[in-house]
Amino acid sequence: xxRRKGLVINDRQLDRCDDLLxxxxxxxxxxxxxxxxxxxxxxxxxxxxxxxxxxxxxxxAASSFAATQxxxxxxxxxxxxxxxxxxxxxxxxxxxxxxxxxxIVTFGRETQVGxxxxxxxxxxxxxxxxxxxxxxxxxxxxxxxxxxAAGTAMDDLFKDM
Amino acid sequence: MPLINFAAREINYKIVxxxxxxxxxxxxxxxIHRKINPDARGKLVSIATExxxxxxxxxxxLTLGTVKGMQTRFHxxxxxxxxxxxxSRKLVLQGxxxxxxxxxxxxxxxxxxxxxxxxLWDNLLSQGDDLSKLGFVIQMNKRDLTEVFSVxxxxxxxxxxxxPVTESSAVTGQGVFETLKVVCKQVIAKTx
Lengths: 161, 192
Ligand SMILES: Nc1nc2c(ncn2[C@@H]2O[C@H](COP(=O)(O)OP(=O)(O)O)[C@@H](O)[C@H]2O)c(=O)[nH]1
Ligand SMILES: [Mg+2]
Fold this sequence. Notes:
The structure holds two protein chains of two kinds. Chain A is of the alpha+beta class. Chain A has helices at residues 11-28, 54-74, 113-132, 146-157, and strands spanning 7-9, 30-37, 42-47, 82-86, 90-98, 101-108. Chain B is an alpha/beta fold. Chain B has a single domain (3-191), classed as P-loop containing nucleotide triphosphate hydrolases (Rossmann fold). In chain B, strands 1, 2, 3, 4, 5, 6, 7 and 8 form an eight-stranded mixed β-sheet that branches. The mean pLDDT of chain B is 91.
């Protein structure tokens, strides 16, 4: 399941994801959407305003989702592919796109859950093609000087104080 | 498995502090949170029980800034140490790039250290990851106390992989950043 290959995203993939998220946001009436990795890192978001806690959000959503999957396993149920929280003003919907990617959708109570589910399901089918498609030859490689430069930056930031 | 987002020019690594209950994992994160340049860190998120013990994990995102055009981040996690929380530990290990095994140097804690160390390798192996790509460092913590094992003895007991070892006292902060730096450099070297 967790391959040590990592998740590498190129320009074309990100553009397509951003377009799709923007569309999904419009048709579903949701206020904040995010694509995150199953290890808890944000990939991209669509939101009316910048969400200052996107990192915490991604980390917590990914772990809740992982916990949900473990619950399913314990209950011999393979189909917990969705995590849903209902709040007073806001609903949260987390669903699986691929092995390595999750989709977070938040929307207000005035929006019908069924509508969001329906549009989200369609969006996931398209997202899957973006991530599961053949590897793009245009994916760039890491800059050769990255390791040395990162080392210098770390010496600076992680000084024993 | 770092997340490399060439389009957004971002790279994210996941680092996990592992070790038995009360060995000092959360204290490491708290020290980093307190001392690092506030611009370089996000919020410290903890999911704890009523007795303030880590139930699920602590989470602290750090950013190294822009390196060769890439926004470079390290996401630090701790796991709950108590043996009955193994399901939570496995979840936190998903997609990990580097592990800091925090050993409690106190002589009375030997059994707990060994159990946690074996449990770590069990969990990593069951993930089916390529472990040659994993960063790994052993942090011998609580060096400020008196009834402790020598570094040589602990190394003999807990370091079958011949990994780098650091000494620390997380309460005073001694060795905390040094340890983090060792594992961060490893994970970057292994990405290329
Ligand atoms: N003397 C000493 N105490 C420590 C050190 N590191 C942590 N502690 C203490 O050990 C206890 C447990 O630490 P904590 O970080 O919560 O452990 P965790 O369960 O691994 O997260 C706390 O009371 C800490 O103050 C250390 O280096 N020296
Ligand atoms: Mg803790």
